[in-house]
């Protein structure tokens, strides 16, 4: 989400002709993929400026700030981490950070939290303590309480979970608005050390490009609760449909979630048991059902990849299954993601089973 009215332009970083996916290594002029402009009722949004194929890389961005997910669980942990990292940014990066939106709820929470902290910088300290040379100097002394509150609120509003252990605040990626049927998806690419965003279906020129801010398999009510701190009510097609329709959507999403849970359980179990290599017929049927439901609900990004990943035992995937997984991974996280490369290798070993012998 964005708070300013600046217009910036996304460049094609997918390099389809060279096969070189590292945006830093590209020298040829690249066509614009998207622009940032006002989105009705939502501040700014990101819009396609030409027709985009499914699986187009929209951006690969090093986060402005990276923090450990573990370290930011408590309010004080979050404050310390985000302020420490903010002070490491150069002036230009700080300028970009200030332009990100802070939701009103996050801002009032941050102000309340900061107002309760004893500070070496203000009147909460007695005259004696202030005069004492032993008075500790806060590393955050350069920042006023208002600035600290704003930084915390911007951080909370725009933080992305990167890989389960790291969270990050990005500049451009923060400018996508939310949808419960997003047409793009984001992934942390540990090889690039960048957050990438890819389209997960075809997008027409002029359409808004969206990500999800909340777990998409949750019910409409749970998604609305999770979106509340962002300060808006989702007006996507699903959320604004007739109650009868969104209740059916809830049921389908719940079913996808249940199937994923059962696959996850089986995958963990199969790891321990050498005798289990093949999914059961029942599982194969459930896989087909889950894929149909995902397509029906238009959740073709990460969700699809996770379903294919969970539904076979590692090292025992058949060719067709691995091809499906590879296509999904290439689509939502790109060819240069280590997991995509791993699937590619596994597939090539099936296609050339005697490769390691003849080489
Ligand atoms: Zn929605």
Structural class: alpha+beta
Distinct ligand kinds = zinc ion
Order of helices and strands: EEEEEHHHHHEEEEEEHHHHHHH
Main sheet strand line-up: 1-2-3-11-8
Separation of the first and last Cα atoms:
52 Å
Radius of gyration: 23 Å
Count of runs of 4 or more consecutive helical residues: 12
Coarse shape: globular
Fourth CATH level, the homologous superfamily of the largest domain: SET domain
Strand tally, please? 11
Low-confidence stretches: 1-9, 12-26
Question: If you consult CATH, what is the topology of the largest domain?
Answer: Beta-clip-like
What share of residues are in beta strands? 5-15%
Name of the CATH first level of the largest domain: Mainly Beta
| Helical proportion, percent range | 40-55%
What is the mean pLDDT? Answer: 87
As for the number of domains, it is 2
Q: What is the CATH architecture descriptor of the largest domain?
A: Beta Complex
Taking the sheet with the most strands, its summary is:
5 strands, mixed
Pfam families: SET (PF00856)
Organism: Aplosporella prunicola CBS 121167
Domain SET: 32-214
Protein name: SET domain-containing protein
């Amino acid at each position: 989400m964005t708070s300013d009215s600046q217009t910036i332009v996304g460049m094609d970083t997918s390099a389809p002709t060279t096969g070189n996916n590292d945006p830093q290594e590209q020298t040829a002029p690249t066509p614009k993929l998207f622009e940032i402009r006002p989105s009705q009722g939502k501040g700014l949004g990101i819009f396609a400026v030409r027709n985009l194929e499914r699986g187009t890389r929209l951006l690969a961005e090093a986060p402005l700030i990276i923090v450990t997910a573990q370290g930011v669980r408590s309010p004080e942990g979050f404050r310390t981490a985000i302020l420490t990292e903010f002070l490491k940014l150069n002036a230009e990066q700080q300028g970009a950070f200030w332009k990100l939106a802070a939701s009103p709820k996050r801002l009032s929470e941050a102000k309340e939290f900061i107002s309760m902290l004893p500070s070496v910088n203000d009147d909460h300290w007695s005259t004696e303590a202030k005069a004492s040379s032993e008075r500790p100097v806060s590393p955050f002394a350069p920042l006023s309480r208002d600035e600290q509150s704003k930084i915390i609120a911007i951080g909370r509003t725009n933080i992305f979970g990167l890989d389960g252990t790291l969270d990050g605040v990005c500049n451009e990626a923060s400018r996508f608005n939310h949808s419960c049927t997003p047409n793009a998806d984001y992934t942390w690419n540990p090889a690039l050390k960048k957050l990438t965003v890819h389209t997960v279906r075809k997008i027409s020129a002029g359409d808004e490009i969206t990500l999800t801010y909340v777990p998409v398999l949750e019910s409409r009510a749970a998604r609305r609760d999770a979106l509340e701190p962002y300060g808006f009510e989702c007006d996507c097609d699903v959320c604004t449909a007739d109650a009868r329709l969104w209740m059916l959507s809830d049921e389908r999403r719940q079913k996808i979630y249940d199937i994923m849970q059962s696959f996850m359980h089986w995958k963990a179990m199969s790891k321990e048991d050498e005798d289990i290599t093949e999914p059961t017929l029942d599982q194969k049927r459930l896989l087909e059902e889950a894929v149909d439901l995902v397509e029906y609900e238009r959740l073709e990004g990460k969700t699809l990849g996770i379903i294919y990943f969970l539904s076979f035992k590692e090292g025992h995937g058949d060719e067709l299954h691995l091809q499906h997984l590879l296509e999904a991974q290439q689509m939502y996280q790109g060819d240069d993601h280590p997991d995509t490369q791993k699937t590619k290798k596994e597939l090539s070993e099936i296609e050339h089973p005697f490769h390691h012998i003849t080489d």
